[in-house]
Structures are given as structure tokens and as C-alpha cells.
Amino acid sequence: MVATLTVNLSERSYPILFGVDLAKQVRAKVNELTQAGRKVVVITDRHLARKQADGLHAMFGEVPMLVLEPGEETKSLTELGRVLDFCAEHRVDRAGALFAVGGGVIGDLGGFAAAAFLRGIEFYQIPTTLLAMVDSSVGGKTGINLKAGKNLVGAFHQPRGVFVATGLLATLPAREFAAGMAEVIKYGLLGDANLLEQLEKKPLTVESEELAAVIHRCCEIKAGVVEADERETAKEGGRALLNLGHTFGHAIEQVTGYGVYLHGEAVSIGLAAAARLSAKLGYIGEAEVTRVEKVLAAHALPVRLRAELPLSGLMAAAARDKKVRAGMPRFVVMKTLGDAATQSGIEPALVEACFREVGAV
Ligand SMILES: NC(=O)c1ccc[n+]([C@@H]2O[C@H](COP(=O)([O-])OP(=O)(O)OC[C@H]3O[C@@H](n4cnc5c(N)ncnc54)[C@H](O)[C@@H]3O)[C@@H](O)[C@H]2O)c1
Ligand SMILES: O=C(O)C(=O)C[C@@H](O)[C@H](O)[C@H](O)COP(=O)(O)O
Ligand SMILES: [Zn+2]
């Protein structure tokens, strides 16, 4: 069975297709484009080229494919250059399309290359990690990292379609599945108390009967938030809520060097820190902080740093967060579990205390 959810953004609207195996649907889209004389290229990574070789062939046949190195370091200016050169080499013109098959790294990089090449070509997302299925493939945030910080260069560029084929998760390593669960738990914490309770009662695994419904629910939440504030310009709340745990998490990723903590692992520690901040501000109590830590730990996620990190570096990285407005840091806090809000004017000492409580020195 194939289900569809539309992300409604007027002329930039697009469908998200959900199914176990969507090779036929992807192939049909590729054929439609190529039969109309349009150039199609694919980017993926080396793990997928090996573990999903048959699926990739079923979807793309002989379509030119660039295979990149897996990992966060691929979200770089150098690899962006490789993708752009690949498009040029295959004479992709303005009617061309790029398919990004992979996790958030390939999706963010491919989406940004598509936004930049010839000032913008179409792109399609085929997410292959849980994280990409519930979060990165939807919403059009594309980009790469700089040494100075996560996702500091990028563009808002919506895909033309997203194909969420859950069968692809069969080859995903357990650590990567857990990393995706951090973003799933984030959705519960920011806007769906029922989802949170469901995860608390019964941790989700790749075998769970509920997995497809949970992925669909996360996409529904994300689509709703993005439809209301596509470019994160709302003064309060809005798309910035999807950044719950990320001011702390991105700082951890940047200070450790990309890839030491998976994005989802850093976000997990960030969610624990955000819960502590929310408690210090008087919104939630210690019992709620414990609930947040327990649900993360029940999904094999860290709630503290694996090794000490310097507080000064973490604070400097947090100060470069894109949510900063006129020099004022903005944090996403939990008013209750299931309802988040943005807040500025938070004393740096409170943020420092939260970083310390998760293991910074
Ligand atoms: N644009 C957004 O809205 C958004 C949202 C969340 C995260 N992100 C970004 O996403 C990135 C993290 O993405 P990720 O967690 O998907 O990591 P990833 O893209 O690095 O993929 C994780 C690993 O799993 C492997 N893999 C992927 N699919 C597989 C499969 N089906 N079978 C076997 N191996 C597979 C990859 O080769 C890689 O080694 C970060 O850069 C983060 O900043 C972006
Ligand atoms: O889609 C969004 O908006 C998000 O914030 C989703 C996050 O999970 C994701 O990690 C995103 O890439 C963070 O964006 P950034 O603007 O903080 O770099
Ligand atoms: Zn994220």
C-alpha cells in the first residue's frame, strides 16, 4: 500500500509517498523525466551503493550516479564542489533533476547542490535512514557545515517529491536507527504528548508494527510546522521549534569535530540539556527531566557526553547558532512535555549550568 501526504506550500507543494518498497514509483518518476528529454543524476553514498545495490539499480538503472564517502564530513565545501562538477560533467541543464538517495548528509548536500546549480534545479529525496525519513528529507532545509559551525551555508530549496520506503531500513545499523529516534522523540516533546507517551510505554524498534505510522506522524508534524513558517522567520515559535535540543546538540557536534557524535546522538544530549534548562526556568519539574532522560535512554541514546568537553568552546559554538537575533541567543524550551516555545533573554549562566550537567567542564 502506498500512502501520500502533501506538503502544502502553494507553488512549491510536493507529495511525500510512504510504502515499504517504492522502487516502481521512483522508476516511474525517473522515466517520466528522462522520456521528456530531461537529464537526471543521482547521488548516494558508498554504504548504500553496497548495501542497497539492487534497490538502486531497480530505481535508476543506468542513470549517472555519484557515490560519495559516508559520514558527516561529506557535508563540506569540497564535496559540494564534486556534486556540482558531476552535474556539469553530465550536462544537466535547467530542466534537469537530482535525486538524493541516502541519509541526512546526502539529502542536505544534494539539496544544496540542486539549489545552487544553474541557480536551481529540481531535486527529489529518497531518505534511507530513520532520521532522514522523519526529518531531513522534508521541509527544504539544505546545506553544508563549516569548521565554524553546523549548517552555516545552505539554502531553503524544497524537493519536488519525497519517497519514504521503509523497507530500506532493513540494512540500517542499530546505532543509526537510534540516532533517528532522537528526532522522533523531539517531535513528541515539542508537539505530540501522545506520541511521547507511546514511546515511553513501548520503545520503538525497526521491527515495531507502529514504525510506519510513527514515521508518517513525524512527517505530518514537520509538514504542518514548515507550512506555517517555511523559512523560519516567525518572531516566536514557528519552524525554530524543530530546533529543540539543537543549540546544545550542534555545539557538541562542532566542538568534537563532525562525526564523533552522530547528529541524533548530539541532539539526544541536547534534548536532555534543553529539559534541564526548561526546569531551571520553572516550566517543568525534575520528574519531567527524568522522563525525558528515560525515554532517550530506552532508545539506546546518550543523555550525557561520553567524555568531558570544554565549556568555553561549547558556549562559543552555541553563540553562533542561527537562531541568534541581534546578538540575542534564542533557545527552544519545553513549557510542558509535548509543548515547546522559543525564548530569548536566557542568562548565559543557566546555559552553562546545563552544559555542565551533561558533562562539560
Ligand atoms: N535538513 C534537515 O531538515 C535536517 C534534519 C535533521 C538532520 N539533518 C542533518 O542530517 C544529517 C544526519 O543524517 P543521518 O543521521 O541520516 O546520517 P547519514 O546521512 O550520515 O547516514 C548515516 C549512516 O548510515 C548509512 N546508511 C544510510 N542509509 C542506510 C541504509 N538504509 N542501510 C545501511 N546504511 C545506511 C550511511 O551510509 C551513513 O554511514 C546531519 O548532517 C544533520 O545535520 C538535516
Ligand atoms: O527542519 C528544521 O527546521 C530543523 O530544524 C530540523 C533539524 O532537525 C535539523 O537538524 C536542521 O538541519 C537544523 O537546522 P539549523 O537551521 O539549526 O541548521
Ligand atoms: Zn536535527
Describe how the helices and strands are arranged.
Layout: E1 3-7, E2 14-19, H1 23-35, E3 40-45, H2 46-51, H3 53-60, E4 65-68, H4 77-89, E5 97-102, H5 104-116, E6 122-127, H6 130-136, E7 141-146, E8 149-156, E9 161-165, H7 174-191, H8 193-201, H9 211-228, H10 246-256, H11 263-280, H12 286-298, H13 311-319, E10 330-336, E11 339-344, H14 348-357
Helix pairs in contact: 1-3, 4-5, 6-7, 6-9, 7-8, 7-11, 10-11, 10-13, 11-12, 11-14
Bound molecules: nicotinamide-adenine-dinucleotide (NAD), the ligand O=C(O)C(=O)C[C@@H](O)[C@H](O)[C@H](O)COP(=O)(O)O and zinc ion (ZN).
The ligand O=C(O)C(=O)C[C@@H](O)[C@H](O)[C@H](O)COP(=O)(O)O is lined by residues 135, 139, 141, 150-151, 183, 239, 242-243, 246, 322.
Uncertain ranges:
none
Helicity, in percent?
40-55%
Q: How does the overall form come out from the CA principal axes?
A: globular
Query: Any idea of the CATH topology of the largest domain?
Result: Dehydroquinate synthase-like, alpha domain
Assembly form of the protein: single chain
The name of the CATH superfamily of the largest domain reads Dehydroquinate synthase-like - alpha domain
Q: Domains counted in the coordinates: how many?
A: 2
Q: Please state the CA-atom Rg, rounded to the nearest Å.
A: 20 Å
Q: Strand sequence of the main sheet, in spatial order?
A: 1-2-9-6-5-3-4
- Helix/strand-derived category reads alpha/beta
CATH architecture classification of the largest domain? Up-down Bundle
Question: Which molecules are bound in this entry?
Answer: nicotinamide-adenine-dinucleotide, ligand LNCXM5UN, zinc ion
**Distinct helical segment count:** 14
Helices and strands, in N-to-C order?
Answer: EEHEHHEHEHEHEEEHHHHHHHEEH
Biggest beta sheet attributes: 7 strands, mixed
* End-to-end CA span: 51 Å
Cofactor: Co(2+); Zn(2+); NAD(+)
GO molecular function, one term: nucleotide binding
Keywords: Amino-acid biosynthesis, Aromatic amino acid biosynthesis, Cobalt, Cytoplasm, Lyase, Metal-binding, NAD, Nucleotide-binding, Zinc
GO biological process, one term: aromatic amino acid family biosynthetic process
